[in-house]
Amino acid sequence: HRHLLGIAGLQKWEILYILKEAEHWVALNRSGPAKHDDRLSGLTIINAFFENSTRTLLSFEIAGKRLGADVVNMHAAQSSVKKGETLIDTAMTLNAMRADAIVIRHASSGAVQLISSKVDCPVLNAGDGSHEHPTQALLDALTITRRRGSVEGQTVVICGDLLHSRVARSNIFCLKSLGADVRVVAPPALMPHGIEAFGAESYTDFDSALNGADVVMMLRLQNERMQGDFIPSPREFYHLYGLDERRLAIAKPDALVMHPGPMNRGVEIASNIADHVERSAITEQVEMGVAVRMACLDILTRKARCVEGWA
Ligand code: CP
Q1: What's the ipTM?
Q2: CB 170 within 8 A of CB 137
């Protein structure tokens, strides 16, 4: 089976194909109350979430249901994982229920790939540790494409806790593949070593990075992944790396503000910027998330449905 484990495993044409397919689902989702296409009728999709989520879990659930699939959610906190069941045993249990696709979020990098090697259906990565969050990068690319015409040639600034961010990794791969100039900004302690090898230009001074930016993507501090590491104080972080009106004015006059969520208002982003009617694309990102996940579920289940096409 073909899986969606990360952007690193996708060719440029494959990314563009998913984005094109997602446009169709944006149109359906905006078509009124009857926004249903039951092409996945009879299929069972399991969302197995070993970490908390609001956007990714709900949008995968909505995406599967809009396509007519039977969707069930497994929250690890309420599962037998709490009784000591291993990841592999949990995966084999889900597999035995004859799922047609499994969507997984896990705190460990590589856990989703491990599961994909043990089950008999497509596996979609909904975020694994600090490794990848491919559908987030795809929905971000769709948002930028719709707002700016194209990703190619755009200067995208990604600022925040890059060290622990799977969103940043997937976005760097996706944006570079589509021809954007990517600048990354973080305090030295939260900047991954060797990030330039991925084609991103690294900055520690946010103001310098913002000069000429078309898109400013803010990331939260992932305190839950900072065991014993340097943890900046929220006030100090906002002072040095928070996106406020003064800083946004350094970017291009029509620069787009993005945030994958969940936001910590007043830590990495000012409330009036997050809520800015023209500049903020944050709620649009969420909307694009449903469409992109519909596209991914449709594409990856084609083999099971004996439908011709990619995957
Ligand atoms: N952007 C994102 O992954 O949000 P959730 O953690 O709420 O799914």
Answers
A1: 0.97
A2: yes
